[in-house]
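Case study 2.
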Amino acid sequence: MAVVRLTSRLASSAVVRSAPRLAVLVMLCACTHPSRRALARITAESEVRMAQRERFEAMMHQDITALDTLLDDGLTYHSGGVLQTRQQFLSSVKKQQLIYESITPRTVRVRVYDGLALATGRSEMRVRNSAGLNSYTVRFTEVYVRRDGRWLLTAWQAKRVGA
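Prediction:
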């Protein structure tokens, strides 16, 4: 029993003696600046989220001029079982075949890979069309490509899900 207490005291005194060194190591790790790569990733994720917000705003305000600057020429837009090209999508918004009254993204995750970004999430949608007003939730996947210093939507895929 005495050996166990002595060993226990020695172990705890060793921990106490190494605590200041451990504290300094923790502080150094906490105070180091993120790497350039980490900063670039965080910046790119933020830019993609901003591009998404700007696009949703342009869709809700039927701002074709703004929307035109946010979409890649090779856009494929797949929603509600319909696949549209960039021009077809812009035309449907311009002709008010779809009127986006509200778009509220939720739980969006953005991942960035060398000039490409993938965003996934859910969105609450209120859309008016010839059938009337529809409110629903979609799960979506977006692909963005970086061109001329901007993130452009190049693919949208959405599927309705239960609220």
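The chain has a mean pLDDT of 86.
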